[in-house]
């Protein structure tokens, strides 16, 4: 196995399933497709200046077992393409909803990264939860509400702030890309999804401010990406709630418009990122021309 230092780093939260796992695999595919193997086991440079090979994928989620499955799928993709040295994985099981342990555990993760070796550093801030569903006037569990807001806003903001602070201080001034996985719910209200909409709106505005504060840094960009209604466990939970009569329809249902395959929306995101033509702080939806 090649010992060539990694030139790109991507930390993906919520990498154990759904869109998070799909993004991990889309990043893997992008590296494999844009890089050739020189025949001696050492990967050739990637054609993308924002995602040069080799790539280190840092996978974060609560379930270590599920993260290891994501890592296995990455290795499988690379192995079948004869590109085993191009992408490396590191699994970091971490409960991002536990604010008592988050600061120390996240800092430990960031401390394990060699800041002086990476040319490009990405954060895909994807982890989040649907939270309680129902009328905004019917919230009855303060603890559940607080936990949802802590996970979807407080934790997400802390992760992005910590990542930005660490890599802005890196001596080699790497390219920094932060992606907030957003939603149409961040900019439009949906019945029975008040806490989810609040969480998405809060973290979107935070990331927009982060972009504005660093607008003069040409190596720093932030993207709010809305992946659309994807076929994920979260969508299944929402569909189950709807089937029990809980959703008052104010938009076409998933059955009417069809759910998006996670791999399709992940592929579009990675394409947007590698083209690198978006304006920092912008909100881009899966259905937008981008």
Which key features would you list for this structure?
about 290 residues; alpha/beta; seven-stranded parallel β-sheet; 8 helices; 7 strands; about 15% strand
In words, what does this structure look like?
The protein is an alpha/beta fold. It has a seven-stranded parallel β-sheet, sandwiched between helices. Helix 1 crosses helix 8. The chain is globular and about 55 Å long. About 7% of the residues have low confidence.
Give the SSE layout:
Blueprint: E1 8-13, H1 18-34, E2 55-61, H2 64-80, E3 87-93, H3 102-111, E4 120-125, H4 142-168, E5 175-181, H5 194-213, E6 220-226, H6 233-243, H7 254-257, H8 262-275, E7 282-285
Parallel strand pairs: 1-2, 1-4, 2-3, 4-5, 5-6, 6-7
Strand content: 15-25%
Q: What separation lies between the terminal Cα atoms? A: 37 Å
The average pLDDT score comes to 88
- Biggest sheet strand line-up: 3-2-1-4-5-6-7
Large-scale geometry = globular
Strand tally, please?
7
Q: What string, H for helix and E for strand, traces the elements in order?
A: EHEHEHEHEHEHHHE
| Radius of gyration from the alpha-carbon trace, in angstroms | 19 Å
Oligomeric organization of the protein chains: single chain
Q: How many distinct helices?
A: 8
* Percent helix range: 40-55%
Structural class: alpha/beta
Largest sheet geometry:
7 strands, parallel
Q: Which segments are poorly predicted (pLDDT under 50) over 5 or more consecutive residues? A: 37-47, 249-256
């Amino acid at each position: 196995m090649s010992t060539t230092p990694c030139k790109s780093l991507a930390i993906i939260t919520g990498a154990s399933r759904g869109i998070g796992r799909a993004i991990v695999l889309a990043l893997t595919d992008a590296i494999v497709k844009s890089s050739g193997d020189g025949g001696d086991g050492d990967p050739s440079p990637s054609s993308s200046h924002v995602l040069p090979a080799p790539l280190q994928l840092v996978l974060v989620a609560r379930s270590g077992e599920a993260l290891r499955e994501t890592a296995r799928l990455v290795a499988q993709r690379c192995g079948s393409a004869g590109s085993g040295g191009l992408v490396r994985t590191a699994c970091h099981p971490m409960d991002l909803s536990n604010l008592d342990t988050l600061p120390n555990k996240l800092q430990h993760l960031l401390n394990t990264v060699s800041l002086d070796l990476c040319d490009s550093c990405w954060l895909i801030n994807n982890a989040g939860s649907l939270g309680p569903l129902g009328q905004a006037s019917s919230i009855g569990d303060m603890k559940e509400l607080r936990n949802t807001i802590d996970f979807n806003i407080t934790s997400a903001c802390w992760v992005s702030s910590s990542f930005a602070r660490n890599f802005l201080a890196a001596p080699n001034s790497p390219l920094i890309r932060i992606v907030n996985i957003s939603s149409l719910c961040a900019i439009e209200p949906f019945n029975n999804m008040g806490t989810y909409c609040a969480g998405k709106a809060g973290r979107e505005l935070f990331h927009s401010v982060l972009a504005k504060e660093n607008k003069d840094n040409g190596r720093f960009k932030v993207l709010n990406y809305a992946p659309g209604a994807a076929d994920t466990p979260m969508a299944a939970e929402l569909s189950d709630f709807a089937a029990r009569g809980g959703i008052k329809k104010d938009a076409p249902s998933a059955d009417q418009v069809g759910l998006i395959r996670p791999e399709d929306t992940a592929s579009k995101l990675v394409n947007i990122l590698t083209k690198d033509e978006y304006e920092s702080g912008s909100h881009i939806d899966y259905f937008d021309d981008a």
